[in-house]
Design a protein that fits this description.
By secondary structure, this protein is of the alpha/beta class. Helices cover about 40% and strands about 15% of the residues. It contains twelve helices and 14 strands. β1, α1 and β2 form a beta-alpha-beta unit. α7 packs parallel to α8 and α7 packs across α11. The longest helix has 17 residues. It is globular and about 60 Å long. The two termini are about 10 Å apart.
């Protein structure tokens, strides 16, 4: 089977939930004997990942403007034309923004699978016009894709309620069980080794709620006993990301920037608590990764975070800074060293087989 993938910034080593999803999923599908191509956006191709293939997945780079309001839609238009020239059996489109072009792909004779990673129009970073485009992408993608994959039941319910599409395939995001690092050189570099620390990970956009976490950390009075480290940055620096960095500096928060590999492994292997204060998620890979490290977790109570293997005490009301401050103090007072979570539903090998089954259902 020949599969072409669009809608992602690209792989490997490019920050983002969709990007992590694709980096884990498609090498596994390629290893099953299928011909897989991922079309990448040129602004995210760097000297570190300027390669023609990755773990059996062919990579094609197509130009895109580095402007968040038009980057995805312009790239998707060009990527569909490129994909058609590859004559794939399946075109797999990720996320609702790029899905606005699915009718075009169908008109060109392509068989299309859409993965809905969540209602991106709920993200605060988008203006009114962008939100309208994202809603249109969700509607057109849901209507015209041959099959739709959703990464959580919450998303599936949205599509059934709004568009009457009841045949969505529920296939979760996945997570790998890591080998924890025994090295501490990276966290020592940031002076995180001298006392326990709280960790959070993600892009510096408003819906990630890092401003709530920093304010709650300040209100809690925990700074004398615990560090707070946030790993991430912004793709497109703006007023919010700059104000967040200033807020973090004032509160004594460690900002590591984007990290991966051994630095990220060290940061996660030694953390006392992982916090995800988001206002919006699809199915958060960062939360699954924290759980794979057996770290105690604290999450906002948005539907996407309400995983069945978590307890009521793992949540606080989203946006409530006072409750978050109290929850931080409660969590850390219990001195959890580690926890065990049932991550069976989030196995990437199972997810790869489920995805191929969706492709086969179209071709049959």
């Amino acid at each position: 089977m020949k599969i072409v993938v669009i809608g992602t910034r690209g792989i490997p080593g490019i920050l983002g939930g969709v990007e992590t999803h694709c980096e884990e999923l498609y090498p596994r599908i390629a290893a099953m004997g299928h011909d897989v191509t991922v079309i990448r956006r040129t602004p995210y191709v760097t000297p570190d990942n300027r390669i023609d293939s990755f773990k059996g997945v062919r990579l094609i780079d197509v130009a895109a403007p580095r402007k968040k309001s038009i980057e995805a839609i312009v790239h998707t238009f060009r990527a569909i034309l490129k994909a058609r020239s590859q004559k794939p059996d399946i075109l797999h489109v990720h996320a609702i923004g790029p899905s606005i072009m699915i009718p075009m792909a169908r008109m060109l004779g392509l068989k299309v699978v859409m993965t809905n990673h969540g209602p991106d129009y709920d993200r605060n970073k988008w203006g009114r016009l962008a939100k309208m485009v994202l809603r249109t992408g969700e509607r057109l993608g849901t209507r015209f894709a041959n099959r739709v994959i959703v990464i959580s039941q919450v998303i599936g319910n949205i599509l059934e309620t709004k568009y009457g599409r009841s045949d969505s395939a529920l296939i979760y995001n996945g997570v790998n069980k890591p080998v924890k690092s025994q090295n501490r050189s990276y966290i020592e570099q940031w002076r995180l080794a001298d006392k326990p620390y709280i960790v959070a990970i993600g892009r510096f956009v408003e819906e990630k709620g890092f401003h709530d976490l920093i304010e709650a950390y300040r209100l809690s009075g925990l700074a004398t006993q615990y560090h707070l480290a946030i790993a991430g940055d912004s793709d497109h620096p703006d007023r919010y990301s700059e104000s967040l960095k200033a807020m973090a500096r004032e509160a004594g928060v460690v900002l590591t920037g984007f990290i991966k590999g051994e630095p990220l492994n060290q940061l996660m292997s030694n953390a006392a608590l992982f916090v995800i204060p988001s206002y919006h998620e699809g199915l958060p890979i960062a939360l699954l990764e924290a759980m794979s490290y057996d770290i105690d977790v604290l999450a906002s109570d948005i539907p996407a975070n309400l995983l069945g293997c978590l307890d009521d005490t793992d949540f606080y009301p989203a946006g409530d800074v006072d409750s978050l401050a109290q929850a931080l103090k409660h969590k850390l007072s219990e001195h959890h060293t580690s926890r065990q979570y049932d991550l069976t539903p989030y196995n990437w090998d199972t997810i790869a087989r489920q995805t191929v089954s969706v492709y086969e259902s179209i071709l049959k």
